[in-house]
Amino acid sequence: MKITDCHVHMKGPINVDELLRSMDKNGVEKSILLSTCERESIDATRENLTNTATAINAAPDRLMGLAWVDPTIPGMINLAEEAITEMPFAGLKIMPDHWYVHEDKLEPFWEKMNELKARILFHTGILYTFEDGSKFNKPIYLEKLLHYPDINFAMAHIGWPWCDECLAVMGRMLDAAGWDRNKWQSYIDITPGPPPYIRKQAVKNAIEFCGVNRIMFGSDSFVPTDMTLENQKNALADYRRIFDELEVSPKDQERIFSGTAKELFGK
């Protein structure tokens, strides 16, 4: 079964060969690296993107990337465009950091991303860092993107603890697409997220409400902190168990484990 991990944080330079060996042990075909978060500096953001691009270029058949950008940093529109059009990134990673997606000042950014048909993975849900930042990351604020129908986006962590709100946004975006699933903008990244006591129910609800074609697997691993990818290994084991208990067919499991990420990020 093909597996793509859509959610691997790159916190600094890595040994690509070591990463690939760990992926092989876990049976993972591809990992999507999220470049290191930068909250203030355009130059530091560019350096982070360059480091991640170097890793991707070392193994382009096994590694993909999302450029972590903060749209409120001056000059970020141009750098985000460069990341998508000139660097080896399949899309963007965005985490609203004490700003809301619907703020007027961000209109030029979303307009450019819509023009570029950008693919974006948004953090949604609780944050254990970034001060009191969780309130800016509720899924409902992504409703704004219905005005930018050429942006496709995923909501990470099933929006935990706002999992029902995440599904409500999925329904809202399908309605905005005229119930045409080919024009449906939104996806769900089931990266934990929901803690063990609620994870199975949250995944069950997402599958029943959205269907497996809108759901993709991620582990929330961190490299080089965990170059053995133990977190990836554990997440895979947990979701395999959950899918078996929910009687998800092997075909549908493969869709979640790899097909949806391939569809969204185009590789």
Which structural class best describes the helix and strand composition? alpha/beta
CATH class: Alpha Beta
Which regions contain 5 or more consecutive residues with pLDDT less than 50? none
- The shape, in one word, is globular
Query: Number of domains in the coordinates?
Result: 1
Number of helical stretches of at least 4 residues: 8
Mean of all residue-level pLDDT scores: 97
Multimeric state: single chain
Main sheet attributes: strand count, strand direction, barrel closure: 9 strands, parallel
Strand content: 5-15%
What is the assigned CATH homologous superfamily?
Metal-dependent hydrolases
The CATH architecture can be named as Alpha-Beta Barrel
Helix-residue proportion: 40-55%
SSE order and pairing:
Elements: E1 4-10, H1 16-26, E2 30-34, H2 42-58, E3 63-68, H3 76-85, E4 91-94, H4 107-115, E5 119-122, E6 152-156, H5 163-176, E7 186-189, H6 196-210, E8 215-216, E9 221-223, H7 230-245, H8 250-265
Parallel strand pairs: 1-2, 1-9, 2-3, 3-4, 4-5, 5-6, 6-7, 7-8
